[in-house]
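Thread: Newbie trying to understand structure tokens

Hi all, I'm a second-year student working on a class project, and my supervisor (Dr. K.) asked me to get a predicted structure for one chain before our next meeting. I've only ever worked with sequences, so writing a 3D structure as a token string is new to me. If someone could post the tokens and maybe explain what I'm looking at, I'd be very grateful. Here's the chain:
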Amino acid sequence: MKIIALICCRSGSKGIKNKNLKKFLGKPILEWISKEIKKTKIFDSVLLSSDSVKICNLGDKLGMITDLRPKRLAKSTSDVFDAQKYIFKKFKIKDKDFLICCINNTPFIKKNHILKTFKIFKKNKFKRIVMLAKKIDMENIYFRQASKKNDILYPIFKKVLINSKINRQNQSESFVNIGDLRWASAKSLSSYKEFNKDISKNGYSFLEVKNNDYIDLNNESDWKIALNRFKK
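---
Reply by user tm_fold:
Sure, no problem. This is what the structure looks like when written as tokens:
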């Protein structure tokens, strides 16, 4: 079986303008992730899907197989799983022939993240989805979340909240997955609904990352924090 990495990068990022081409400590972030992927030496090929000619040109220079996808699959409201499905169909990527790792364009994915999660994926005979995950501070546990209505906050998970205990020691550890790295089947990676059905039914294996070592790049504030915390 062949092992492939798939990176989906679109133009027009709103949180951070031109994020996928913006230089992070002197290099576009695509160059950082490309370097880490190459270090692993496990991938037969790296696919880059984008609606941007500039991003594809950069991918070509980095030795990636690039594909200029339709604009309809690269809007701010588009589902990246639809883009992945498009790529799998176009390149005839099927589960019987390929192992797939979808990786987001971020400088915080390191060689060891990829290798350790692949080892977990292999241990589970490539059947169970594997992702990165962060431990949640118990103060931010899910059932304390609330939605805003007419300037008043209403608990979302009312029944669970009512039956909860105030002592944090009574709560089990909670985690949130990081969608920046996913080992899974083409079937699961072709539909967000199917992906969530899979992890809801079978759970998912994970590699824990520390909050201080991993920054989600969603806005300019995140970018500034990331510049201070990034470890080459």
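A couple of things are worth pointing out once you decode it. Residues 132 and 178 are 5 Å apart (CA to CA). The radius of gyration is 19 Å. Feel free to ask follow-ups in this thread.
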